[in-house]
Amino acid sequence: MGKNKLAIFGLSVLVFFTALAIFAPVIAPYDPTEIVAEDTMGPSTQHWFGTDDYGRDIFSRAVYGARISLTVGLVAVSISISIGVLLGALAGYFGGWTDSLIMRFVDVMLSFPSIFLILTIQAMLTPNIYNVMVVIGITSWMGVARLVRGEYLKIRELSYVEAARAIGCSNKRIIFRHILPNAQAPIIVAATLGMAGAILTESALSFLGMGVQPPMPSWGNMLMDAQAYMRDAPWMAVIPGLLILITVLSLYFIGEGLREKSDVRS
Amino acid sequence: MLEVKNLSTYFKQGDSTVKAVDNVSFSVAKGEILGLVGESGSGKSTIAHSILKLIPASASVSGEIIFENRNLLQLAEPELIKIRGSKISMIFQDPFTSLNPVLTIGEQIAEVLRFHQGMNRQQARDRAIELLETVRIRNSGLRVRDYPHQFSGGMQQRVMIAIALACEPEFLIADEPTTALDVTIQAEILRLIVELKEKFNLGIMYITHNFGIVKNICQRVVVLNKGRVVEEGETGQIFSNPQQAYTQRLIECLRVLTHPPTPSLSKRGGGVLSADGGELL
């Protein structure tokens, strides 16, 4: 019950942030890259979250930043889920050498320190928002692949899969139409948690200057900008920091809630 | 119509080889129900799975399975896919787990129609409703939208039969289709199978460990033990004059169950067990 309430809270927060992101141009009082004040100013009625070192409105930047962070999270997770489901399904369904090959590849990918891998790829490519999404996606699918493989190993032995083969279903059809819908609950949970991870990674990358490039605002690079002014203008760090915290926490709550629900059913 | 010649299916288990089916031959004619009888592990199900090549690739299968002048064992997977569910169908032991829990009954019947007969969504749906009527499911127009868990065990097995018969196959493999069901439901399902056999002039291979069912519905019997054929013949002949000690023992088990020697047993268990084995139809 408690977790369920938390999940609903998480969902409400996420819906609220998504609405902010979608309607950013309507909601934000100022252009996020425009200099609207003389100097760094604390929160006031004119600038709710204050202004940053260049005199830009932090509320507007935070609202536009939500767009970036949520989009990056969503796209990166879509990529990682697609790769993970495909490879995990092939490994689990066919077994044998297909399984060994794919799972050893997963082991190799997992043994890379992923943040350095991402930084290296980003250093070779031009660091922009599209590369950030793709790079996060292709370095975070391994957990999903393992999870999906496990589900397929379990489900392929069930008799409805045998029955599907007995009526002439091809492997492709069995993999996607008969097994995948039965494995969807844990995949959805993994996607929610994965999105939280992707948002954190994006923030870390932008914080290190290898992610979303200024003047485009993301919660991560807003934090980076705040570094030098921690004493004089703490709100510059607190606002994006809190936003990341709340979003990630909300996603975790949703993930946990879904996990609990799917456990009860099985 | 279906002829099994010298079928052997071996499984490798570590260094040793398990001879699950060893040099088995028999045939099934059109409109005939052949009983395949034996204890657990006698190779009944492996024969069924070998016919449709539903066994793991690691198993070695030799011999011939002749169906429509072709040896099924030599067909490639794309050819087999066209035969499975369309010319040769199979129904399974446990209807509770043989239907996909996330697809509606209608979708599961329609699926086989759509890829074997190229029907569109609407045609397949209409035919699915007809088929549900054929296996006597009431309100079939509404029930096609239900999921398997909304059906009872007996109804689920009827749905499995509807799926198996959807493309009007010539041959049906029934792998202990009543074992997981209540005794009263068993009788209904058996009656349905016999009736549909008459209607579609099907050849049926009926796998069971229950001699009572054999006596009721099969014209001929093949008795298996440890992967080999022990005895084969007309049902009546086998029952009245079993030649092999193993067959005699199996039949004797049935007699003990249906006509228990002690009165206390007959009171408690007799009724149930006789329904299982005795005069069903």
Automatic annotation (TrEMBL), chain B:
Q: Where in the cell is it found?
A: Cell membrane
Q: Name one GO cellular component term.
A: plasma membrane
Q: Known InterPro entries for this protein? A: AAA+_ATPase, ABC_Ni/Peptide_Import, ABC_transporter-like_ATP-bd, ABC_transporter-like_CS, P-loop_NTPase
Q: Which UniProt keywords apply?
A: ATP-binding, Cell membrane, Membrane, Nucleotide-binding, Transport
Establish whether keyword Metal-binding is in the entry: no
* Membrane-protein topology: Peripheral membrane protein
**What are the protein's GO molecular function terms?**
ATP binding; ATP hydrolysis activity
The reply on keyword Transport is yes
Q: Per the record, which residues fall in region Disordered?
A: 262-281
SMART domains in UniProt: AAA
Entry similarity comment:
Belongs to the ABC transporter superfamily.
The name on file for this protein is: Dipeptide/oligopeptide/nickel ABC transporter ATP-binding protein
Instruction: Identify the species of origin.
Output: candidate division WOR-1 bacterium RIFOXYC2_FULL_41_25
